[in-house]
């Protein structure tokens, strides 16, 4: 099962994408090409620019659709990223998909 895991390494935020075949760091670059909220990278635990970049990056990674990701990332930030504990978080692809499915169904996407 695919999941997004955020933690701090030497005090710096790091987000990994884990799945059955391995793991990789979630890159900020693709999401920054859409909207560059945070040139210094990801954050979580509050409602600022670093969390916005992370929310956009997760949705873009999950959907591979810049339009859907950019339409929903602020709400995703408020519901998943801003309340995440400072020490770290895990968000599964199933959680992202269910959340996104409920939003896109009502939006007619």
Hey, roughly how much beta strand do the residues contain?
Answer: 15-25%
**What's the β-strand tally?**
4
Order of helices and strands: EEEHHHEH
Q: Outline the biggest β-sheet.
A: 4 strands, antiparallel
Structural class: alpha+beta
Number of domains: 1
Mean pLDDT: 94
Number of helices: 4
Question: Spans of 5+ residues with little confidence (pLDDT < 50)?
Answer: none
Give the C-alpha Rg: 13 Å
Helix proportion? 40-55%
Distance between the first and last residues' Cα:
25 Å
- Strand order in the largest sheet: 3-2-1-4
Give the overall shape, derived from the CA principal axes. Answer: globular
What's the gist of this structure?
The protein is α+β, with helices and mostly antiparallel strands and 109 residues long. The protein is built from 4 helices and 4 strands, in the order βββαααβα. It has one domain (3-95).
């Amino acid at each position: 099962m695919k999941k997004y895991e955020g933690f701090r390494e030497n005090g710096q935020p790091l987000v990994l994408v884990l799945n059955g075949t391995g793991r990789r760091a979630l890159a900020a670059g693709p999401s920054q090409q859409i909207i560059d909220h945070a040139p210094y990278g990801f954050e979580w635990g509050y409602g600022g620019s670093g969390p916005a970049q992370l929310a956009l990056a997760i949705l873009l990674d999950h959907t591979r659709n810049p339009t859907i990701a950019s339409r929903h990332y602020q709400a995703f930030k408020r519901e998943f990223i801003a309340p995440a504990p400072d020490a770290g978080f895990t968000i599964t692809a199933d959680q992202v998909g269910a959340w996104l499915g409920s939003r896109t169904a009502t939006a007619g996407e």
